[in-house]
């Protein structure tokens, strides 16, 4: 039997309420060149039953349930290892393919790129509000030659924090260092930028993905992830110039009181995060004192203040929008689109 050209690799954990909708958006587009591989990190909800039902009705879908949760980085690695395709599309377990997504990607894979980046639209949790029509903002497809890693980085970071935009050659993934990036939450970024790509990278301008923003399982840890893990990873790549990295990701992005206020309102900046990230830093004593005070003011107080601030000084939002919705719609949380 001929190996598929594309494996859609999904790592899932406790997504029984969402993964069915994701699979519906994929299975309706399947061809004999495509398979789906779902690795379940030992879900404790109804995910196993949902997946077994889908696997029974779709011969192109393989469901692998792990004996224990390995973490998102390791589980995506497992999915790639189980895959049979020449290419792997790393996809979240709660977002959606738009019509025509698979055919458009297959068209580019026949051109033998090392990497394909797929644009996406950003919506709220129930897909009722459009936050951003195009994550990348480009109107035409773009191609990057081998050796253009710095330029590629500048173009797709921070968009690439969203793992669902990545379609990569399976052999390339398996040949590169992976264990080093376990626990970073962004193993795909580490694999791509650790060294030059051997072939071209292609960026598709049309959004073929709908992102369910605000549904990530790491929301409560978002301050640690975006203020520490993400910049630490980005600044670890020796082939990317410091100038390019600084334009995209500051080494210590938490060094703005406005940022601390917002993350406190969202509930992810706390006295514990202050002690972990801010206290050991080289910030001044006065700045640390202000940062500590922000961390100790009750989260509902900051939430109410930020909601009032957005409504008073920014464009008036729809009534049903939360502080989280407002933050992304106004661009105050930018690029934080990694889906876990």
Provide a descriptive summary of the structure in words.
The protein has 340 residues and is an alpha/beta fold. The protein has two domains: 207 residues, Spore Coat Polysaccharide Biosynthesis Protein SpsA, Chain A (Alpha-Beta Complex), CATH 3.90.550; 104 residues, no CATH class. 39% of the residues lie in helices and 17% in strands. The protein is built from 14 helices and ten strands. Strands 1, 2, 3, 4, 5, 6, 7, 8, 9 and 10 form a ten-stranded mixed β-sheet that branches. Helix 5 packs parallel to helix 9, helix 10 packs parallel to helix 12 and helix 11 runs antiparallel to helix 12. The chain is globular and about 65 Å long. The C terminus is likely disordered.
Shape: globular
Structure summary, number of beta strands: 10
**Could you say how many structural domains there are in total?**
2
Helix proportion: 25-40%
- Assembly form of the protein: single chain
- Overall pLDDT score: 90
**How much beta, percentage-wise?**
15-25%
Q: Secondary-structure element sequence?
A: EHEHEHEEHEEEHEHHEHHHHHHH
Largest sheet: 10 strands, mixed
Stretches with pLDDT under 50, minimum 5 residues: 328-340
Output the radius of gyration: 20 Å
- Annotated CATH architecture of the largest domain: Alpha-Beta Complex
Highest CATH level, the class of the largest domain: Alpha Beta
Helix-strand makeup class: alpha/beta
CATH level-3 fold name of the largest domain: Spore Coat Polysaccharide Biosynthesis Protein SpsA, Chain A
CA-to-CA gap between the ends?
33 Å
């Amino acid at each position: 039997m001929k190996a598929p050209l594309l494996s859609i690799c999904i790592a899932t954990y406790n997504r029984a309420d969402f993964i069915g909708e994701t699979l519906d958006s994929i299975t309706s587009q399947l061809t004999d060149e495509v398979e789906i591989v779902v690795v379940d990190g030992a879900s404790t909800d109804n995910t196993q039953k949902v997946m077994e039902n889908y696997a029974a009705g779709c011969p192109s879908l393989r469901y692998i349930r792990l004996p224990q949760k390995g973490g998102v980085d390791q589980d995506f690695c497992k999915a790639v290892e189980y895959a049979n395709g020449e290419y792997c599309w790393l996809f979240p377990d709660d977002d959606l393919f738009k019509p025509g997504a698979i055919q458009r990607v297959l068209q580019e894979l026949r051109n033998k790129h090392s990497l394909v980046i797929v644009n996406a639209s950003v919506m709220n949790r129930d897909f009722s509000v459009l936050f951003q029509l195009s994550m990348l903002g480009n109107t035409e497809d773009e191609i990057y030659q081998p050796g253009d890693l710095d330029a590629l980085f500048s173009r797709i970071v921070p968009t690439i924090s969203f793992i669902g935009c990545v379609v990569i050659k399976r052999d390339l993934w398996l040949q590169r260092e992976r264990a080093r990036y376990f626990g970073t939450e962004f193993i795909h970024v580490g694999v791509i930028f650790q060294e030059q790509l051997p072939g071209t990278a292609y960026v598709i301008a049309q959004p073929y993905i709908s992102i369910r923003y605000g549904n990530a399982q790491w929301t409560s840890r978002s301050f640690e992830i975006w203020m520490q893990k993400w910049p630490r990873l980005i600044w670890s790549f020796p082939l990317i110039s410091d100038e390019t990295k600084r334009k995209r990701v500051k080494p210590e992005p938490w060094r703005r009181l406005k940022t601390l206020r917002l993350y406190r309102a969202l509930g992810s900046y706390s006295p514990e995060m202050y002690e972990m990230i801010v206290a050991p830093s080289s910030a001044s004593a006065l700045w640390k004192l202000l940062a500590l005070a922000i961390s100790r003011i009750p989260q509902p107080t900051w939430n109410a203040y930020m909601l009032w601030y957005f409504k008073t000084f920014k464009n008036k939002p729809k009534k049903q929008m939360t502080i989280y919705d407002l933050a992304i719609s106004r661009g105050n949380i930018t690029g934080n689109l990694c889906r876990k």
